[in-house]
Amino acid sequence: MARAAMRELDLDKLLWMPTGAPRYRNAPVAPGEDRVAMLRLAIEGEPLYEIDARELALGASGYTADTLRELSAGLEPDTALYLLLGADQYAKLDTWHEPQEVARRARIVVFSRPGFKIEDQAARVIPFPAMPVSASDIRARAARGEDLSGLVPPAVAGYIARRRLYR
Questions:
Q1: Quick one: which of 38, 116, 146, 158 could link to 87 by a disulfide (CB 3.0–4.6 Å)?
Q2: Does the pTM exceed 0.85?
Q3: For residue 82, with 0-12 CB atoms within 10 Å meaning exposed, 13-18 middle and 19 or more buried, which class applies?
Q4: Residue 17 and residue 64 in contact, taking contact as beta carbons nearer than 8 Å
Q5: pLDDT (tens digit, 9 = 90+) per residue, 132-164?
Q6: Helical spans, DSSP H, in 20-122
Q7: Is 93 helix (H, G, I), strand (E, B) or coil?
Q8: Burial category of 93 from C-beta neighbours within 10 Å (exposed 0-12, middle 13-18, buried 19 and up)
Q9: Angle at 96 (CA atoms; ends 38, 49), nearest 5 degrees
Q10: Closest by alpha carbon to 126, among 87, 98, 74?
Q11: Domain spans of the chain, in order of start
């Protein structure tokens, strides 16, 4: 998906932003430092990819609107920001904290997901073959000790196994 976004949107760089422990939903299963380590392994050798861990900072709100405010404050005024979402998350965008602010600060880009139709014109849709497996499925497979080949980069699969994540 990242490569498709880079190509379709002609991006200068892509930021990967692991979520912290937002008040509005359950915290991620793996600790933030492990998720950053897995991201580093996954994007190694991709010079246009960067990790922005601001949402892991103590006191971060975890709301996308706040993150976009912070991010845009450090950029040139004409810099375009894009928010990449799966169709499942896009379908819930109107329930997010300050969804209008999110849409004002970033151009919304959506990737298809099985079972979700993207019919409105407010978002740009990037054609992408829907993956039949979700992150939740991958975590469940890891919890059962199943092979993750082809689902995550080999270095990430090794990290998950060594750290016994999701078990």
A1: 116
A2: yes
A3: middle
A4: no
A5: 788 889 999 999 999 999 999 999 999 999 999
A6: 32-43, 64-73, 87-90, 99-105
A7: helix
A8: middle
A9: 30
A10: 87
A11: 2-132
Q: Which residue's structure tokens are 């990037």?
A: 126
Contact yes or no for 28/19 (Cβ under 8 A): yes
What does 111-145 look like in DSSP terms, one character per residue? Answer: E--TT-----SSSEEEP-PPPS--HHHHHHHHHTT
The tokens describing 62, both together, are 């975890």
Of the two residues 112 and 41, the one the predictor is more confident about is 41
Structure-block tokens of residue 11: 């991006």
d(CA 96, CA 90): 10
Quick: pLDDT tens for 50-102: 999 999 999 899 899 999 999 999 899 899 999 999 888 899 999 999 999 99
DSSP 3-state assignment of 57?
Answer: coil
Terminal Cα-to-Cα distance of the chain (whole angstroms): 27
Rounded-to-integer distance, Cα 90 and Cα 118, Å: 9
Show Cβ contacts of residue 20 under 8 Å, excluding neighbours closer than 6 positions: 27, 32, 55, 56, 57, 60, 62
How far is residue 133's CA from residue 129's CA, in Å, rounded to a whole number? 12
